[in-house]
Amino acid sequence: MQNLLRALPRVRARQSRYRLGQPSTAKGPVLTLQLGALLICVAVFAIGLYRGVNVGILLFAVAAAVGVGLADLPVKEVISGFPIDLMILLAGVTFFFGVAQVNGTVDRLIDAALRRIGHRPRLLPLAFFGLTGAVASMGNPGAALVVMPIGMNVARKKNINPTLMAIAMGTGMSAGGFAPTSTFGIIINGTAREANIDFSPVLLFAIALVVNLILLAVAHLIFGRSRYRRRTEATARASAHVSDRDFVTVGPNASAITPSADFTTDEDAIGLGTHGPFTFIQKSTVACIFALIAAVIGANALGMSPDIGVVTFSLGAILILLDPKSAKDGAAKIDWSTILLVGGIITYVGVLQEVGTIDMLADYAASMSVPLLAALLICVVAGLVSAFASTIGMLAVLVPLAIPLITYGGIPGWAMICAIGVCASIVDVSPFSSSGATMIATYPDADERPRMTKMLMRWGLSLVIIGPVAMIGAVIIPAMLL
């Protein structure tokens, strides 16, 4: 990943042609070009959110308009900001795990895990935390959405508080998204390397994992207490139901149990089907997944930086040679939407660098007497906007813009980047996000959905404030004291 985000804006040694205070060529005599370009970025985000379209595509077009039309940059220089290395990396990772999904390996791994814990209801929230985390680590955190309908049905049939199950899966997706093989981790790791910030991908993943496990434990204390009472009541009702309806006489002095329509086995409750042994291609895919994990962990331990995009394309090539019919459907799983989103944002950030906006933010960070306040503000913005919009988009914008605060504010880079990432992702359980909305919509009990929506909204929006305060106190301040 050494060359990841090579096209990300680089701090130039030469002086920018657009220094602070110079009159802008944009409309309005007061606004400088630097501030105007930043406000245009904010406006495009707002328009994209309101219209529900891919912000990256909008920003790519606007980058050309601002760069060529206002800043008089050559169009080739604007286009060169598009992160080709990042595109290869995201395409390779999502292609490889797309093939794994198409050939049934991902579903088989989920089923195998659920069969081991399906008869132990107390472990189900933790189990679904692990399942969504594992799936989210496979290239795209959004892939964990496939687990969520299963989890919400299990919560209903096992009498688990649906809010607790939703938070368990939301925190699992947040943690898994920061794996070195997933989009959150890819964006942050690449940005840190390009900015020459001493940063460990494994440390980022470890911090995200610990934070989300703590959130799951807190959710269990808040929402899990009524679970056992409800299960006891449900068991009593089931027993009465069996005694009234399910015992039928089949002989003069004998009775037997006839299952009613409400009876379900553990496997039925979990939604598992009947599967035979793993096929050859599925075994090969599992071996490739372990090889990828070993390569990432081993290389990090040795201080090496393998190009994960190349590795995953190579492993995917092996799999489609063994199973050619998975090639077309696997290629269709490439996450072009995310590639265009991140690519457009980074291209526009490149224009911001060229016109001097990054220099302007650096001067502002250097003049601040309380950089922790700016760090807190950035983390709050990350959480608030991410609760309603794209987490990936927030990471692509805020992490590069926070680099001046790191450089001139005296805040350790790894701590600031970790704080931004975690604060942007832990709010994704909000009902305004795709994951929160999916979990609410797929919960079978329609009467419970309004209460679940209210609980998840309170939980998600409270983390907009609690998350940044906790990350400043637990990560950034200790890092500054070291």
From TrEMBL:
Transmembrane segments: 30-50, 56-75, 87-106, 126-152, 164-188, 200-223, 304-322, 334-352, 372-398, 405-427, 459-481
Keyword Coiled coil: no
Protein name: SLC13 family permease
Location of this chain's protein in the cell: Membrane
Native source organism of the sequence: Rhodococcus artemisiae
Membrane topology: Multi-pass membrane protein
Keyword Ribonucleoprotein: no
Residue ranges annotated for the Citrate transporter-like domain, each copy included: 58-377
